[in-house]
Design a protein that fits this description.
single chain, 298 residues, alpha/beta, Rossmann fold, 7-stranded parallel beta sheet, 3-stranded mixed beta sheet, 12 helices, 37% helix, NAD(P)-bd_dom_sf
Length: 298
């Protein structure tokens, strides 16, 4: 299968690129710099210099492919504009065909709550509120499209778990420990990046439609994750809860409000697709894996 991939040098996109190549797919990866071109070429993809915001150029690139995956997520405030451009190009190039498209979302859009599944109603915090309308527009098109919503993505020492591993040391009633995100009672929906990459590939290969949660059944509390990071840091598992105000001051209000969500969804439709996450837990990664100091690693 000839696949067009955006974000091929990012945390999620680079894992998706590896998975696609391991499964025998040919990948064309959109890039904006020579460094990115070299990186995707080293990973086995054909680099294509293009502006992903350019609907005409993207539609032309899509026309030469059998399917596409969009994982690009710039950190310059243009996420919504980028996703709208990608959806417009996909609708133009893939509309009325059977060529599959996989779009990236995030579990935060569902807000706090336990027991939700792939099609749970949206209740997003401000940081991701824009996603809902874009995804509704995509799924209303005559396109074979799926929307993957990952949880907190971990693995290889990257992603949001670095906020736990690198949390400031503060004094608390039990001694010096790592500052928590909030009081730590909230649960995070999580997924290893390599397991997530397998879900993207399955969604593409099977022409999945609709919403797919990219989350495991783990749903650890932030306190348990912080304690694992604290043990790795030599602090004996001591953690210090923080108020909402302290967390918002440290991380910024928008990100803090998302990380304070209590989430425990069930990835029902993803599992029905054949997805079976198998990597180690985030707690283990924090205590003795890729996020731990060298001395603490197993």
């Amino acid at each position: 299968m000839q696949v067009l991939l955006t974000g091929g040098t990012g945390f999620i996109g680079s894992a998706v690129l590896r998975e696609l190549r391991d499964r025998g797919h040919e990948v064309t990866a959109l890039v904006r710099s020579e460094a990115s071109a070299a990186a995707v070429a080293d990973a086995g993809a054909t680099p294509l210099h293009a502006d992903v915001h350019d609907v005409d150029a993207l539609a032309a690139a899509l026309a030469a492919t059998d399917g596409a995956i969009h994982t690009a997520a710039p950190d310059d405030g243009t996420n919504e504009a980028l996703d709208r451009a990608v959806v417009a190009a996909v609708a133009r190039a893939y509309g009325g065909t059977t060529r599959p498209f996989v779009h990236t979302s995030g579990v935060w859009k569902h807000g706090s709550g336990a027991g939700g599944t792939d099609d749970a109603p949206a209740d997003p915090p401000a940081i991701v509120a824009w996603r809902v309308a874009v995804e509704e527009h995509l799924l209303a098109q005559d396109v074979v499209a799926s929307v993957v919503a990952p949880g907190v993505v971990y693995g290889h020492g990257r992603g949001l778990p670095t906020l736990l591993a690198g949390a400031p040391r503060v004094d608390g009633p039990d001694g010096t420990g790592l500052a928590l995100v909030g009081d730590g009672t909230q649960r995070w929906s999580v997924v290893h990046v390599d397991d997530l990459a397998e879900l993207y590939a399955l969604a593409l290969e099977r022409g999945a439609r609709g919403h797919l949660l990219g989350t495991t059944a783990e749903n650890p509390t932030v306190r348990s994750l912080g304690e694992a990071a604290s043990r790795a840091a030599g602090l004996g598992g001591v953690v210090v809860p923080q108020t909402v105000e302290q967390t918002r001051e440290r991380l910024g209000a928008a990100l803090a409000d998302a990380l304070l969500l209590d989430q425990a969804p069930r990835a029902q439709r993803s599992v029905e697709l054949g997805w079976s996450p198998r990597r180690g837990t985030l707690a283990d990664e924090l205590e003795s894996g890729s996020y731990a100091p060298e001395a603490a690693r197993a």
